[in-house]
Design brief:
- The protein has 174 residues and is of the alpha/beta class.
- It is 17% helix and 24% strand.
- It contains 3 helices and 8 strands.
């Protein structure tokens, strides 16, 4: 009987993901290709670090092949404080690891209105794919309005007592 020659796994490590997929499709075995992205300090983004089927292994139709693909260097949270929220979001988008960015606001006097006050995770923390990042932005100085009681035609003592009863402090009588 004439058997067909077995198709042997080639070496796809070091190829780009696209090159590796093209190589595996060339075998015409309808292989089930799965990828696992991982950060790598040594292998450039988008390239195969590892394949779970050793080179020169006979392949069977429909066989699963798992490729480990480099995401490149693992990004570290940068300093986004004093950026506008829009600038901070663009910076995070440039990390290209599908971060989920949300924001909240609070009153603060020491940075410009609309600027980022702090982040979670903090500057220097390592980021993973899909991490949630919260930007805390400044609303501006908090303005509290109170109705000043009518103290017209009151004595100084009565006026002071009325103001203090309503919570007013730091007033001066001249």
């Amino acid at each position: 009987s004439q058997g067909s020659e077995p198709v042997l796994m080639g070496n796809v490590v070091g190829m780009s993901e696209e090159q590796a997929r093209n190589e595996l499709m060339r075998y015409k075995l309808d292989l089930e290709i799965h990828t696992t992205p991982v950060f790598s300090e040594e292998v450039s983004k988008g390239y195969v670090i590892e394949c779970d089927v050793p080179e020169n292994t006979a392949l069977t139709p429909g066989q699963k092949v798992n490729l480990t693909i480099s995401l490149g260097h693992q990004p570290v949270m940068g300093n986004l404080v004093n950026m506008t929220e829009e600038e901070a979001r663009k910076t995070l988008q440039n990390y290209d690891i599908d971060l989920v960015v949300s924001s909240s606001t609070e009153y603060a006097d020491d940075v410009e209105e609309g600027s980022v006050i702090s982040t979670d995770p903090r500057e220097g923390d390592k980021l993973e794919v899909g991490d949630k990042v919260t930007l805390l932005s400044r609303l501006g100085a908090e303005v509290i309005t109170e109705k000043v009681p009518n103290i017209v035609n009151m004595t100084w003592l009565d006026a002071r007592n009325e103001l203090e009863a309503k919570g007013f402090k730091n007033y001066d009588y001249k």
